[in-house]
Amino acid sequence: MDDPNLSPVVALFELVVLAGAAYATYFIFRRANEALWMPAFQRQESRKQTVLDAWRDQKSQRSVDPTSDLQAVFQRIDSDKSGTIDRFELFAGIRLAFGARLEISQEQVDDLITENDEDGNGELDFAEFAAAVAKLKAKSASAPRLLSAAEAAFIVAMRS
Fold first, then answer.
1. How far apart are the first and last CA of the chain?
2. Which terminus of the chain, N or C, has less C-beta within 10 A?
């Protein structure tokens, strides 16, 4: 059967069979490979979703209590952790928050403490600090241009 007319047909058939075998091999290899990596991929995606869900839950449960934010600012300014803010700590806290952008003197900080120091010890405890912030916020809401530089710095420091 060496018919010269059949030779191209046989060659084409052999090519189709060979291509089919190559595709079948590729398909089987691909499925086997997917069977190996797909579970690991799914575990990774599941872990990622778990972490994202935990982060969203934590974010939604964060406190919006202004007292806790104010307490955090107070603790940040109270560098010696004495429970009170003295004139140097307040001055340093304002300088740290604003750097050279705000011209404020130690005298202005002393005036701010003197105005709000109810027990006369020369330092602000948390209750005095909170009352001072509340007064300054009320004052800034009614007449924002009448604030001294120290009072403005105090208010902005409380927001950061």
1. 93
2. N
Listed residue (83, 102, 85) closest to 94, CA to CA: 102
- The residue whose two tokens read 């004495």 is 82
SS3 of 144, please?
Answer: helix
Which amino acid, residue 141? Answer: A
For 128-153, how does the pLDDT look when each residue is reduced to its tens digit (9 = 90+)? 888 887 877 777 666 555 555 566 66
Q: Answer whether 15's CB lies under 8 Å from 22's CB.
A: no
Cα dihedral angle (17, 21, 23, 26), rounded to 10 degrees?
-170
pLDDT tens sequence across 70-80: 788 888 888 89
Q: Tokens in use for 28?
A: 């089987």
pTM over 0.90: no
Q: Indicate the CATH number of 66-159 among 1.10.238.10, 1.10.510.10, 2.30.30.240, 3.50.50.60.
A: 1.10.238.10
Q: What is the pLDDT of residue 58?
A: 76
Q: Which two tokens stand for residue 29?
A: 């290899």
pLDDT at 101 over 80: no
